[in-house]
Amino acid sequence: MSLIKKLLGKRPVDYGSASRNDRCPCGSGKKFKSCCWDKVQAKKREQVYSKLFRNPKG
């Protein structure tokens, strides 16, 4: 691993513009649907559910 990559560390990946059949933005070389698609969709569902079912008293 190069020194630059070590210093920069992991950078945030923008999944917003990727469609299912594009290459995954994480850089793995796989199709998005076979790589990170499920993780991204689960995070979106979690955000929606937390807004819908949050405790109104909390």
Short description:
With 58 residues, this protein is mainly α.
Task: Tell me what you see in this structure.
With 58 residues, this protein is mostly helical. It has one domain. It has two helices and no strands. The protein has helices at residues 3-8, 37-52. The longest helix has 16 residues, at 37-52.
- Provide the number of structural domains: 1
Number of strands: 0
In what range is the share of β-strand residues? under 5%
Q: How many H/I helices?
A: 2
Query: What fraction, in percent, of the residue positions are helical?
Result: 25-40%
What would you report as the Rg, rounded to the nearest angstrom? Answer: 16 Å
Low-confidence stretches: none
Order of helices and strands: HH
What are the key terms here?
58 residues; mainly alpha
Note the topology.
Elements: H1 3-8, H2 37-52
